[in-house]
Amino acid sequence: MDSVQDALIVMPLDGEDRLQAAKDALEALQTALQDGGQHGPLTLEIAGLSDFRRQVLFLEVVKDAGHERLVALSEAARSHFVNAGIADGDDGRPFTAHITVAKLSNLFKGMRRGHGAKLKGIPEEAYADLVGIQGGSVCVSELQLCRMQGREKASYYHVEASLRL
Q1: Contact criterion met (CB below 8 Å) for 47 and 88
Q2: What's the pLDDT score for residue 53?
Q3: Are 149 and 15 in contact (CB under 8 A)?
Q4: What CA–CA distance (Å, rounded) separates 5 from 158?
Q5: 3-state secondary structure the chain
Q6: Which of these, 43, 80, 86, 111, is most buried using a 10 Å CB contact count?
Q7: What pLDDT shows up at residue 117?
Q8: pLDDT averaged over consecutive 10-residue blocks of the chain (165 residues)?
């Protein structure tokens, strides 16, 4: 099984107080998962390629027991971070389990102004042959609290804290 990363929740962690509150919420989440017998890695089956408004291409997570557990984990995490006062209770978007493959906003970073400005979305014909792709299995073994700011180009985010499933 391959290892991949994607965001479960995105929230601002500006300042040491908010960062510590996030670390505390992650620790409380780990305790709740262990007390509820919901700890341990989870396996997700990946099949299908789709898009968000033709701006983001992503691999879909098959809606099975692994997906259900991931949704429950997402809800538990959001609840802990909302209760800690560092995440919104409802950002208006339902949780969509996915693995991001490409973002249109990232395609033109570093290019001179005006280049690519005519491209309003990723053309469907560019990925139409891959819509039914079988992506295999992904093992999720930990949640990471990452800082998005200050990341070096082409490097992974700085991990502030993690929770082993």
Answers
A1: no
A2: 87
A3: no
A4: 13
A5: CECCCCCCCCCCCCCHHHHHHHHHHHHHHHHHHHHCCCCCCEEEEEEEEEEECCCEEEEEECCCHHHHHHHHHHHHHHHHHHHCCCCCCCCCCCCCCEEEEEEHHHHCCCCCCCCCCCCCCCCHHHCHHHCCCEEEEEEECEEEEEECCCCCCCCCCEEEEEEEC
A6: 80
A7: 57
A8: 55 84 92 84 94 90 94 89 81 79 72 60 89 93 84 82 90
Can you read off the two tokens belonging to residue 55?
């701006």
| Residue written as token pair 């700011």 | 149
Residue positions counted in the chain: 165
Domains of the chain: 16-164 (3.90.1140.10)
Residue the block writes with tokens 């290019």: 111
Return the pLDDT at 116: 52
- Beta-bridged to residue 49, according to DSSP, are 59
Residues ≥6 apart with Cβ < 8 Å to 142: 162, 163, 164, 165
Provide the token pair at 88. Answer: 């919104």
- Joined together, the tokens standing for residue 28 give 């409380």
CA angle 36, 39, 45 (to 5 degrees): 125
Question: In sequence order, which residues have a C-beta less than 8 Å from that of residue 38 and are 6 or more positions away?
Answer: 69, 72, 73, 76
